[in-house]
Specification:
9% strand, 60s Ribosomal Protein L30, Chain: A, rod-shaped
């Protein structure tokens, strides 16, 4: 290029100036040519330096590309959030590569244009200045790209640090969960052993239940038969004592295997007396006729009074209602025995005024509390009595 300009200068000097050119003009032209050559050398040096910077940028881009591939391979197994960040980085790097590629193409075009402009150097000074400005802008853009690349490297380093921290946290969490799983497995084994022990206990209980079920079914059947007999007795009493029941002098109640005959005292005794009246004997004889055939029940006679104290006239005989209620119960027991009931099934007790069935606030209520109850209950076996 430099030789071409020199040849062009000689031709211009020979043909353009003519044989009558003055020496000072010739010197001026030579100086002008020398200045042009210096300017051209300067531009070539600047273009060479610019090309070196471009080559350096290419090397840096290649290094960045290698780093990008390394990051992609090491971060491929990370979470979706990290993958998204890497995707953004890839897109950013790709965008910068595209920009650099575009700049390289542009630089090549500028170099081509610069070669063309060198041929018309004298006419294209303004264009050279323009290209210089563009080159400066390109340098500035390259510096900006370097800054962005440095930021990207820093961002990648931060991401790598963050990933390592998260990896450590995940490792700690996995270790903790593994310990929990081991503890749960130990607890599960303990529970399985407990379940096995419980199953063995249940099997033993089932065997005991099976052995007891037969006895229990026999007892239930026997109980049902006793209740059925008691119902017949209940029906017989209702029929035999119909008149007294209608006059509300006697009530008969049955609750499962318990039968209660409740008699107001006036049907059996005179006031303050423990001697059974004629009418009372007739009623008790009817009751005894029905009860003497019963061999599987205890017959308990209970005596009850109201809360009126014993009068002074009778106090020598019955100091309190305890004695009066007990004496009446014993009188009924003796009468039942005399009328054919086995005395081994009989029992007597007196409760005085302490088990009322109504408040002692009116005469009618007090009359209800003055009563004798004949109660039929199942005979308790020795083991049942011991348990109670």
């Amino acid at each position: 290029m430099k030789k071409l300009i020199i040849v062009v200068g000689i031709v211009i000097s020979f043909f353009g100036c003519g044989p009558n050119i003055k020496p000072e003009e010739l010197d001026a032209l030579k100086k002008q040519r020398a200045d042009l050559e210096d300017a051209l050398d300067k531009k070539e040096k600047e273009a060479s330096a610019f090309q070196e910077e471009v080559n350096l940028m290419k090397n840096q881009i290649a290094q960045l590309s290698d780093e990008k591939k390394t990051l992609e391979s090491t971060m491929s197994s990370e979470k979706d959030t990290l993958a998204a960040n890497m995707m953004k980085l890839k897109e950013s790097i790709k965008e910068k590569e595209n920009m650099i590629t575009e700049r390289e193409v542009k630089i090549k075009n500028l170099e081509s244009e610069l070669a063309l402009k060198n041929q018309n150097l004298f006419k294209k000074d303004d264009e050279i200045d323009k290209k210089d400005n563009e080159a400066s802008a390109l340098k500035k853009e390259i510096e900006n790209l370097k800054t962005e690349i440095a930021k990207l490297k820093e961002s990648n380093a931060n991401l790598s640090k963050s990933m390592n921290s998260e990896k450590n946290q995940l490792s700690d969490e996995i270790a903790r969960l593994q310990n929990q799983i081991k503890e749960m497995e130990n607890k599960n084994n303990d529970l399985l052993n407990q379940i096995k022990e419980k199953e063995n206990s249940i099997e033993e209980l089932n065997q005991k239940i099976a052995s007891l079920s037969e006895e229990e079914s026999k007892k239930i059947k026997q109980k049902e038969e006793e209740i059925a007999k008691l119902k017949n007795t209940y029906g017989d009493l209702l029929s035999e004592l119909k008149e007294e029941i209608n006059r509300k002098e006697i009530t008969v109640t049955q609750l499962k295997d318990k039968l209660t005959i409740n008699m107001v005292d006036k049907i059996l005794f005179d006031s303050g007396s423990a001697e059974i009246k004629r009418k009372g004997k007739r009623v008790l004889a009817s009751v005894a006729k029905i009860l003497k055939s019963i061999k599987d029940k205890q017959i308990i006679v209970e005596g009850h009074t109201d809360n009126v104290p014993i009068s002074a006239v009778l106090a020598y005989k019955f100091p309190s209602n305890w004695e009066l209620s007990s004496a009446r119960a014993i009188s009924v027991v003796r009468f039942l025995q005399q009328n054919g009931i086995d005395p081994s099934f009989l029992g007597a007790t007196g409760y005085g005024e302490f088990r009322p069935i109504s408040p002692n606030d009116t005469e009618d209520n007090r009359a209800m509390n003055r009563r004798v109850e004949i109660i039929l209950i199942p005979i308790l076996k020795t083991e049942e009595m011991s348990s109670q």
